[in-house]
Known about the structure:
The protein is α+β, with helices and mostly antiparallel strands.
Amino acid sequence: MTLVVIGANPTVAQAAEALPGDLLHVQLPGAPALDRNGLAPGTRQVHTVDFHDGTAFRTFVDEVLKPLSPTAVVSLTELGLEPAAVAAERLGVRGVTPAVVRRTRDKLEMRRALELKAPHLNPAFASGDDPDAVARLFAGHTPVVAKPVSGVGSNAVALFDRAADLPTDRRTAGTLLEAFVGGLEFSVETLSAGGRHTVVGIAQKGTTGGFVEVSHMMPPPALDARGRARVEEAVGQLLDVLGLTEGPSHTEVKVDGDHIVVIETHNRLGGDGIADLVRLTTGIDWRVAALGWAVGAGLPRGQATAPTAATVFFTAPPGTVTAVAPPPSLAHGTIVEWEVGVEPGDQVRPLRSSTDRLGMAVVTAADSAACVAAVAELTALPIVTTQPGVTVPSARRATNARAADDRSTAAPGTAQLSAAHQPGTAQPDTARPGSTAPPSTAAQPAPVA
């Protein structure tokens, strides 16, 4: 039994090690090494191919994967979902079909499918290239949300009050326009098997005015048992309409009173550490389950360790980082994970998408009220302090300068590698959030796990 995993990051690769059978990873050229978390070498195969190049990838599937007779092909990264579906269909093995994946990734196609079979889950919407529909939408609904049809990470999502303000580059088939929906937003993690959908966790979101997610709380404090049942029913209806009968899904909905509207869905687990919230509050290893459904792993469950948990993301105004605070002691919860991706001297960009966030913490608490208080407490603290128009000495630049000096004094003919490139040393998944360092020149799948 061999499971093929497309585009794993090191965290996903580590989860895959818990599955039975053999593993075969397919990575993009230049992708980070998968052994950064201490995976045992030699326990799985790793192949490199540009799976965004359709012709090259199909050749790879036929010439490399087919002779190995894999059992299933899966992916948990957004840009690997369609290649995984194509490979599974081409090989005739378990996986999600390309048509279903397309309906989850193309937000306009999802809207049109819901319009036919479950219109109550839709807001009013229009394609950006349909001027009459756009005019009708603005005439009856304001404000209007404009988003890329295949966008991820809250990138390029904007709010408009008038059709006249809509720029030319938003009047294309690549833009979906929707009536803004009020209420609270929730994300729903679901595992489907044989057309039956099991909800493994619901998180309540906190977002900025620009739609960037800055917190997730699980279980959702604003949903009672009736509200949770209604959300679960709505998500089940959505998945039925799209034909997603097998595997994981991550669905975002808004709830305003008794009205539930689907925002978007994906046939993968949610990012932003939501898998960790599932594990902490239910004991379910959501990463393992989301990978292993195709090889019969089911829902591996351990012991829940916290009644409630949350992820909180750090942001700061644009400018130069002047200070980074250490982890605080909270009055209402306990910090169990802490990561800040910037340091004094780094530049902070405007908060336009998830990649502009500066770090995150995972917090546990005794109950929902304490979790809400802990999130509010941590959000109010100035974890990263910035100031526009100042220059602050950077520890990173000083370290790099010392390393350059060391290399310049090396004996002729000797090669010195920086610590980041020593054999077996961990490599970062991408450039750090908030850093001016560019990511790898190779196109990388969006990390979601």
